[in-house]
Write a structure and sequence with these properties.
2 domains, Rossmann fold, 414 residues, alpha/beta, 6-stranded parallel β-sheet
C-alpha cells in the first residue's frame, strides 16, 4: 500500500528545536507506520528551501515551497473578503501526487489548503480531523473581550490584529470548501462527527484515535505532592482560556485561602488578559513556564495534584489525553469533543466554559480528598491506555484505508 500524507508539520523530516512543547502525535504515528512491511509512506508539508523530494529512513518526504508565488495572494487576502484562488497550491500538491502515485491520500487537518486537492485527483482522499476552524472562530474571544479591545490594546499592532482576523475569516471559508469536497473523514469525538456532517451530510465518517508522544507511554509512578500543585498546557490564542486560569486561581487564593503553585506551559503572552481581567499572574501564584519538552511536562504532571484544561473550544486536546494516560485527574471545560474524553465524576470533571467557581471548588476537593484524586486518576488511565493503544490505532487506520480504497474501486467499476 502506497500512502501519502499531507501534514501541517514536517513530522520527523526536520524537528525544530523551537517545536511546541516537544512535538506532536503525527511524528509518533509515523514512527509506528514505518516499522510495517509492504507499506510505502510519503509525507508532504510546507517548508521552504528544501529539495522537491527527499528519501530518508524509509520515508519519502516532499517539502513544498511556494512562498514567493503567494505574496500577491496574501495581499489580496488582506484587502478582500474573498477566498483566494488556490491554483498555485493545488498545482504543487498534484506534482507530489503524480510523482509518488499513492493508493490513498490522508490529509491531516482542515486548517491548511491541502484538502482542496480532492476533486482534482482520482486517488481517494481522507481528511483526519484535528481542530475545526469554523467553530473555533465562533468561540475565539472570551465573553468579556471584543475585537475592538484586542485591536486597541496596542495601537502599533492594530494592523496585525486586523490581518489575523481577516485570515481567520478566509481560512474558515476555505475550510468550508474543503469539508464539502472530501468524502471520507477520520475523527475521534461525537463533536467532530456532528460538525463534519453539518458541512457534508453524506460523508463517510470513521473513528480513529491518536498515538500520543512516546514518553507518556513509559510506565511511571505518580506521586501526590503534599502541597497543592496544578499543571496546565495551552497555547496563545484567546479561546484556549488563559483568562479562566487567572480567575480560578484568584478565587482559590482570595476566597478559599489556599496555598498552591499553578504551572502553565506554552507560548503564553499574559499582558492582554492580565489587563482585561485585572489579575496579575504573580499575584495569584500562576507561574508561566514557557514551551517545554515532553519529558519535563510528564514529570510535572506525575507530581501534581491535578491537570486543568480551560479552553472555550477544543476537539480532543492531546494534553488532556497525556495527563489521563499518566493517571492524573483532569478538570476541563465541557466544550467541543472533550466530553468524549472525560466522563464527568468518573474519569475526570467537566465544568462549564468560563466557570471559575466550579473549577476552584473541584481543584480544592481533589486536593483534600486523596482517595477521590487517585480513583479518578486510575479510572482515567484505564480508559486512556485502551484509547491510545498503538497497535490498535495502527491496525484500525489500515482497516480504514483498505475500506476507502475498496469503496473507491467499486465506484469506479459502477
Amino acid at each position: 500500500m502506497r500512502i501519502l500524507w499531507f501534514t501541517n508539520t514536517p513530522s520527523n523530516y526536520k524537528i525544530s528545536s523551537k517545536g511546541y512543547n516537544g512535538g506532536g502525535w503525527i511524528s509518533s504515528l509515523e514512527k509506528e507506520i514505518i516499522q510495517l512491511k509492504d507499506i510505502k509512506l510519503a509525507i508532504s508539508f510546507e517548508l521552504s528551501g528544501e529539495p522537491f523530494k527527499v528519501e530518508k529512513e524509509g520515508v519519502t518526504y516532499y517539502p513544498i515551497s511556494y512562498a514567493k508565488k503567494k505574496k500577491i495572494g496574501k495581499l489580496f487576502e488582506l484587502l478582500s473578503n474573498s477566498v483566494l484562488n488556490y491554483s498555485v497550491e493545488i498545482e504543487e500538491y498534484l506534482k507530489v501526487i503524480n510523482d509518488f502515485k499513492p493508493d490513498i491520500i490522508e490529509v491531516f487537518g482542515s486548517e491548511r489548503s491541502f484538502g482542496l486537492v480532492a476533486p482534482f485527483t482520482s486517488v481517494p482522499v481522507v481528511l483526519h480531523i484535528q481542530g475545526i476552524l469554523n467553530p473555533y472562530y465562533n468561540a475565539y474571544l472570551p465573553p468579556f473581550i471584543s475585537w475592538k479591545q484586542l485591536k486597541s490594546f496596542n495601537p502599533l499592532k492594530m494592523l496585525q490584529q486586523y490581518k489575523n482576523k481577516k485570515r481567520w475569516v478566509n481560512s474558515c471559508k476555505r475550510e468550508t470548501e474543503i469539508l464539502k469536497r472530501i468524502k471520507y473523514y477520520i475523527g475521534r469525538t461525537t463533536w467532530d462527527e456532528r460538525v463534519t456532517k453539518i458541512f457534508n451530510p453524506t460523508c463517510q465518517y470513521f473513528y480513529g484515535s491518536e498515538i500520543l508522544r512516546e514518553p507518556f507511554y513509559f510506565s511511571s509512578k505518580r506521586v501526590l505532592p503534599a502541597e497543592l500543585k496544578i499543571v496546565t498546557t495551552i497555547s496563545s490564542p484567546l479561546y484556549k482560556g488563559f483568562d479562566l486560569v487567572l480567575k480560578t486561581a484568584k478565587l482559590m487564593k482570595e476566597e478559599l485561602g489556599l496555598q498552591f503553585i499553578w504551572e502553565v506551559f506554552g507560548n503564553i503572552n499574559p499582558q492582554f488578559i492580565e489587563k482585561n481581567t485585572g489579575i496579575i499572574c504573580k499575584s495569584i501564584n500562576v507561574k508561566l513556564c514557557g514551551v517545554a519538552q515532553a519529558e519535563e511536562i510528564k514529570q510535572k504532571i506525575l507530581n501534581c495534584t491535578c491537570f486543568f484544561h480551560p479552553s472555550y473550544i477544543d476537539n480532543s486536546p492531546n494534553s488532556v489525553c497525556e495527563a489521563q494516560l499518566l493517571g492524573c485527574p483532569v478538570i476541563s471545560t465541557n466544550v467541543g469533543g472533550i466530553p468524549s474524553l472525560i466522563t464527568d465524576n468518573e474519569t475526570g470533571f467537566l465544568v462549564p466554559a468560563n466557570d471559575p467557581y466550579q473549577a476552584a471548588y473541584l481543584i480544592w476537593q481533589l486536593y483534600k480528598d486523596t482517595v477521590l484524586n487517585e480513583n479518578i486518576g486510575n479510572n482515567a488511565k484505564i480508559v486512556a491506555v485502551k484509547r491510545h493503544d498503538k497497535q490498535e490505532i495502527v491496525s484500525s487506520l489500515f482497516g480504514i484505508y483498505q475500506q476507502i480504497i475498496d469503496s473507491n474501486y467499486r465506484k469506479k467499476q459502477e
